[in-house]
Design goal:
The protein has 199 residues and is mainly alpha-helical. 57% of the residues lie in helices and 3% in strands.
Length: 199
């Protein structure tokens, strides 16, 4: 009588996220929540009664600065929307960017063992060099780079046009409030305290 032997079945283990990956994603989500909490109402942004033609270039640039301070998060969301629309309308570029992002995330956030390809172990420095070359090829030697730059220029044009024509008189601008959170470095220099020297 033949006995049936059971085949050993290995249970695939889920990719264990490294502590660095968990910290990275936690920081991204916390920063996004903090930034979205500073978003201004969209109806206030598109209020047609507050749109007038600026009288001079200096007034337009002053309006852009004030509106950027007030509507910063809304403008960044608008730029992201233009960029997303541009990428969705060009699926090959979207696929290349997602594949590139997936490569970076896998090779630097999720990988816990050394990279071995074709019986050769690659150091972290070699992986970084290979990914840098691949990134340069994807961004600059395909149409991805021109697509990203043109989408950002269109978005920036929309933001500057809105900022120049939106009268900031009715906006509550608190210049002393420091910018904190996601992309806070885009807030500008902020207020600086004068240095007084005693002689």
């Amino acid at each position: 009588m033949a006995t049936q032997s059971t085949l050993p079945i290995s249970v695939p283990q889920a990719v264990a996220a490294t502590p660095a990956a968990r910290a990275f994603f936690a920081r991204i989500t916390e920063g996004a929540r903090s930034a979205l909490s500073q978003r201004r109402p969209w109806l206030e942004m598109v209020d047609r009664s507050a749109l007038t033609k600026p009288e001079s270039l200096a007034e337009a640039s002053s309006r852009i600065r004030k509106n950027w301070t007030y509507f910063r998060v809304n403008y960044l969301l608008l730029l992201c929307g233009v960029l997303a629309f541009s990428l969705v309308s060009h699926p090959v570029s979207l696929f290349l960017l997602v594949a590139l992002l997936g490569g970076w995330i896998f090779l630097y956030l999720l990988r816990t063992e050394p990279l071995v390809l074709l019986n050769r172990t690659y150091s972290d420095r070699e992986v970084l060099g290979i990914m840098t070359v691949v990134s340069i090829v994807v961004v600059f030697l395909t149409n991805v780079g021109s697509l990203l730059i043109s989408a950002l220029m269109v978005g920036l044009g929309i933001v500057c046009a809105h900022g120049a024509f939106r009268v900031p008189e009715d906006l509550f601008l608190d210049e002393q409030e420091p910018a904190v959170g996601f992309l806070s470095f885009l807030g500008g220099g902020g207020s600086q305290t004068p240095v007084v020297s005693h002689v």
